[in-house]
Amino acid sequence: MRFIDEARVTLRAGKGGAGCVAFRREKFVPFGGPNGGNGGDGGGIILRASSKLMSLYDFRLKRHYEAENGKPGKGSQMHGRNGADLVLDLPLGTQVFLMREDGGESLLTDLPQDGLAVPVARGGRGGKGNEFFKSATQQAPRFAQPGEEGDFLDVRLELKILADCGLLGLPNAGKSTFIAAVSAARPKIAPYPFTTLEPNLGVMLHDGDPDRRMVIADIPGLIEGAAQGVGLGHRFLRHVERTRFLLHLLSAADLDPDGLDPWEGFDLINEELRLFDESLAERRQIEVINKIDLLEPAALVKLRERARAGERKIFFISALEKTGLEELTAEMWRLQAELDLHTPLERNLRALGGPDREEADGDDSDDDSCADGGNLDQV
Fold first, then answer.
1. Is there a single domain that holds both residue 124 and residue 145?
2. pTM to 2 decimal places
3. What is the mean pLDDT of the chain?
4. What's the domain range around 97?
């Protein structure tokens, strides 16, 4: 299944059922009176976060969702059944934006927690039957209310991956090879230069505690100018926002041990993070030099010495040969434990508002009446 992180869909809540016009007709009951029942309320739409989903692919295939309509009322004071709510499961980290008529958009809700359910569209109210409108001055009303329309929303879904660790690096830094080495993920790996076009997720398990796990997100390679949309640009930088810490990979093949600044690649991506979001540049980060199997022993020694001289904590690994991974993964587990895992992620949980729907007043029945209600003379 393809990884899709953005989709636009329409949501329509159910329409309320129409009220019924009916009169009691029984032998020996000469003045039975009205007994038309009320229509049922339309079903609402609820968005729910699910850890079982990893993509918005299904919402690219189906773009229109409707809840069930309420059933109409019947005679003998039988009220119509309420329409069933429609529950849509979305991947963790999905943000829902309401598209306005002026072309703008506003954040409707955020789904950062598994099982979190947020109602976003409210079903229409069912119409009142003529039994509701009877009074001392109006003993035989021959009208009922139609059902109200449910809410209609045009929304944009945007997925921001939720992960403990986000892998960063220039194209061909070996991120796919690393995530395959430490998890069961099997991303595309090839012996020629290319960049991943879709984020990959891997789960790393702790040897001493099978219930302890770490979710790693392989963010596709970023290049200079990504913060301004160059290359993959904003499309994948947004996924970095939902990670707890970053693991920054740099390929040893791109380093010059005798150069003025061999760590220039780290600084380049960090600057893109800063330009995109100042808080990302301040996020905890582990710096890693990958593909040390391509270096001569003397060059590797020189790089280690320069890192120590600059008081820069850098891990040197070969993800392909699985060299140095034990020390690096230990640092990743340590950092995960050090960070507050219960720090709330930024979210805006706002159910669709609107005026309260008050019960209609029998004395105001002339204002609320509508000839479109059901019309049944029960025999």
1. yes
2. 0.61
3. 77
4. 6-159
